[in-house]
Amino acid sequence: MSPLHPIAIITTWFGAGLLPKAPGTWGSLAALPFAWIIVQNFGTTGLALATVLVFGLGVWASEIFVQRFGGEDPQAIVIDEVAGQWLVLLMVPADLVSYAAGFILFRIVDIFKPWPANWADRQVKGGLGVMLDDVLAAPYAMAVLYGITLMMAEV
Length: 155
What we know:
Elements: H1 6-11, H2 23-69, H3 79-89, H4 96-112, H5 117-123, H6 126-154
Helix pairs in contact: 2-3, 2-4, 2-6, 3-4, 3-6, 4-6, 5-6
């Protein structure tokens, strides 16, 4: 499959997953400007709808990618990071500090995959399995961001 094939473009998030070393981090980073543009033009409701759309698109495209190339969760697929990252960004205003905090927290929980993300990572196969673990990890980052927001409000 060419990197210019539509399935490759979707699953690798415009090639971010093809970058060397830490493709998940590149995918999460590449998700940030898209989220900012969506929020600026359509608000957080638009980002929520886009997250649902990217999740569904990711399940479909990742299933095709996995069937064609094998593997359970190929590192080149980073659309799962996009969906998880966008989910986290729903909790914060569209500014540099908040997006940086959301990015760092999501990367930490995505790497450590607390339950049920680690369960989904091992047990759910195919395109849904590729997408599900990142989306299940995102609420942990969202909870920490919410806690930080509450603490900042009290200061």
